[in-house]
Amino acid sequence: MIGRRLVLGCALCLVASRGARALEWTGPIAQGGFISGRALPGTRLRLDGVAVRVGPGGEFAFGFGRDAKPESTLSVTAPDGRTETRKLAVARRAWLEQPISGLPEAMVSPPPETLERIARERERVRAARRHDTPEPWFAAGFVWPATGRISGVFGSRRILNGQPRAPHLGIDIARPTGTPVVAAAPGVVRLAEPDLYFQGGTIILDHGHGVSSSYLHLSRLDVRPGQKVAQGETIGAIGATGRVTGAHLHFEIGWMGIPVDPETALPPMPEG
User: Would you say residue 13 lies in a domain?
Assistant: First the structure.
C-alpha cells in the first residue's frame, strides 16, 4: 500500500487547558489527510476561518484536500473562553500518474447532448456530500467497504485514452461484479442512484459533521435515501457501471465536500 504512511500514520496534537488535555486527534496533517478527534465539550474550533462542528461529547473532524496549501490555521476556543491559534504545517505529497486506455470515447469526451445530464448529476452528488448532520457517527471510525487489490490510489493524475484529466479522488478496489460492499461507518443514505453517467451505481452516506463516504460503479444498490445503516452492513455490490474498464469499487471519503485520502482514515486492509 504506499509505504507512504509517513504522514499517513497517526499524528497526535494536544492543546493544554488548565493542565488538562483539551484537544487531541489522529490523522496526518498532510495533503489529503483526514483528521478525527475529541475536544473538551464546549470547545469551539475554526479551520482557516471555517467553523468545525464539535459534538456534545467533543467529537470533531476535518480534512485537507489533495492540493491543500502548505500552512493552515486552527483556532481553538476553550470552554472557559480562552483562545489559542495554531499554525499547522501541511505536508506536501507526491502524486502518481496513471494512464488508463480502452475507455469508450464518449466517456472520455462526452457528447454535447449529455453535458446537461452530467452537470445535473454532479450537483446532486455535491449536495449529498455536503450534509452537516449534528450526529457524530464518524467517531466510530471506518472499516474497509470491500477488500481486494488496490487498482487506483487517491491523488493520482489520470491520463484517459492519452488525454490528461482531473485527479483521482478516491481509491479503487478491484473485485468481481457481485462482491458485497458494506458501509464503512454508520450513517444515513443521502444518495442512492443506479445509473449516473460517470459514476454508474452510486451510494453516498452521511456520517455527520460534514463527513461522507461514496461508493461508485455498483452493480446493485440495497439501500434507499434516508435509510440509517450500521457499520459493516451490506449496502450494495461491486460492478462495472459508469466510466470503467473493469469491475471495481471506487471509494471516497470527504469532509464538507472536500475529498480526502480514504487510506488516512482506514486501518490496514485485512489479509485475505
Answer: yes
Note the pTM of the prediction, 2 decimals: 0.89
Q: Which domain holds residue 42?
A: 5-89
Q: Give the domain-ending residue among 56, 89, 122.
A: 89
Q: Which residues pair with 85 in a beta bridge?
A: 75
pLDDT in tens, 41-61: 999 999 999 999 999 999 999
Do 84 and 101 fall within a single domain? no
